[in-house]
Amino acid sequence: MSGTLVVDDLELVISGAVEGVGLAYVAEQEVATYLSRGTLLRVLEEWCQPFAGFFIYYPSRRQKTAALSALVSILRYGSHRT
User: Fold this and answer.
1) Contact at 8 Å (CB) between 72 and 48?
2) pTM of the entire predicted model
3) Are 42 and 35 in contact (CB under 8 A)?
């Protein structure tokens, strides 16, 4: 059978790539083990931008709620723990 397979489940995407169904576009940390073992190979690497990290956008510092302030603090703390 031939055709296009589109899925929205990360585990299924990775499993399909490992089984040779096709290419998968996923974050490197999700498939690091497969890459290190040689089970998966990088393709089109020159087209992939390095991951700079996550960003959070909100409308205004004046409108920042206590919950959002707490989330930003947690995310900042977590990004400096290495």
Assistant:
1) no
2) 0.62
3) yes
72 token code pair: 């930003």
Q: What is the pLDDT of residue 41?
A: 94
Domain ranges of the chain: 10-47
pLDDT bracket for residue 37 (50, 70, 90): very high
Determine how many CB atoms are found less than 10 A away from the CB of residue 23.
11
- How far is residue 82's CA from residue 61's CA, in Å, rounded to a whole number? 28
Phi, psi of 2 (to 5 degrees): -125, 160
Sequence-distant (6+) residues with CB within 8 A of 47 are none
**Residue 67 φ/ψ, nearest 5 degrees:** -65, -45
26 contacts: CB under 8 Å, gap ≥ 6 = 10, 13, 14, 17
